[in-house]
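Data card: per-record layout.
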Amino acid sequence: MNKLIGFFKKELIGLLRDPVLLVAVMVMPAVQLVVLSGAITLEAKNLRLAVDTGAHDMMMEKIYNHAIGSGWFVRAPDTDKDPVAAVQSGRADVAIVAPEGGLTRAVGRGEGEIQVLIDSMNILKAQSIEAYLQGVTARAAADMNYSIGASPIEFNVRILFNPQLNTKWFMVPSLIAVLVFIALLVLITISIAKEKETGTIETLISAPVSKYDIIIGKVVPYILVSFLIMLSILVIGLIVFGIPFVGSGLMFLLGFLAFCVPGAAIAVLLANYTHNQQQALLGIVIVAFLSLMLSGALIPTENMPTLLQYVSYINPLSHYSYMVRSIILKGPDWSYFAAHAFVMILVGGLIWVIAVKKFKTTL
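The structure for this 363-residue chain is written out next.
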């Protein structure tokens, strides 16, 4: 019994003497609980809605107003002229298009049918949109003195980019982004932490090389390894799961290189605050988990509180996961790529400034 008490005291004192490990074990679970309780929700909210309606189309105006007032939909930006293009470009999650001559006149002729175009890049959203619109349309019809049970409006639904709402088509592109990020974190952070733990970092620092040489030597080889990991996952997705690759291969490669800027910077910054592989692994778990949950790779960021949406916007994994999914399933234009790549490189550049400054070059 005395031996067990001795071991207990020894491990407890060791934990108390290690501030990094102590914070990670005692503080971070509470932080994760507070953050993720607001981030994790499977409800689809703030769906960006675009409407193609002519002048004086009262029925379409009522549907649009009821949709925005329901809390499920928000106005899609800059979609007044061409809502169909808005869905294709990713600026809208759903577009409803009135029949020629307007929905109000079509209903009067007994031909009330509207076309619903749904972006199924995120199946959690796509699965909810039609049901929400059915309820909104029924309320709009009731306002026009039509019976809710006999709505004069029918839907012609087109599911774009993932017509079968195949979960694998949604998950595999997301996993490519996530696993590339984890590979960069594990390989770079553990490599530097191992040098510290074994003491060989002192040999590197005392050698006639600059800290930039050390950092580049630690980062570049593992970027190549992460690239091979990404290609292997992509090939498995294409061959085994039958996922289409619609976009540009060059854009896919440049997107990977753009993401490596912040991904590698985060790994080096994390390594600066860890002194052994145990701390590094714990830090990787915390950073990777929070980044994943706030990235939109699994949970739509539009469902999150406003503060967490801002955090998600500066999260490089958010932009990379959206980019990979869009390149594989949709084939976006270069303006879409440039917008996401710019944020990743900007955020990565800021992290690199801090990481290089914190990198110790003295014994």
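Known properties of this structure: The longest strand covers residues 113-119. The mean pLDDT is 80.

See the next section for split statistics.
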